[in-house]
Amino acid sequence: MINPGTQNKDRLTIRVNHDRKINATKIAEELGTDLPTLVNMFIARLVQENGMPFRPMSNDAIVGLDEALADVKAGRVTTFDSADAFRDELRRLEKPTDD
């Protein structure tokens, strides 16, 4: 009898930076799995989503997130007591100013 888990499987060979592979292997092990399983999971989600299973971010987006985090850490934030108050503030910010 043929093992159903091995039917219709192809081998995929890729080249990857050695240090990146070592780090990824450690992370996979910490997650209780191995690197080939994670690669297969990625491919399965790629097919399921019919595209990237995550949103790639540009350096500009990362810089923006870093700036936002710095604002939060420095206390430069506005808090709201309700979703309505937050929506009101968004509407106020959307209105053109009379300059």
Automatic annotation (TrEMBL):
InterPro entries, per database record: Arc_rbn_hlx_hlx, RelB/DinJ
Organism, as annotated: Levilactobacillus tujiorum
Listed Pfam families: RelB
Domain of life, per lineage: Bacteria
Protein's UniProt name: Damage-inducible protein J
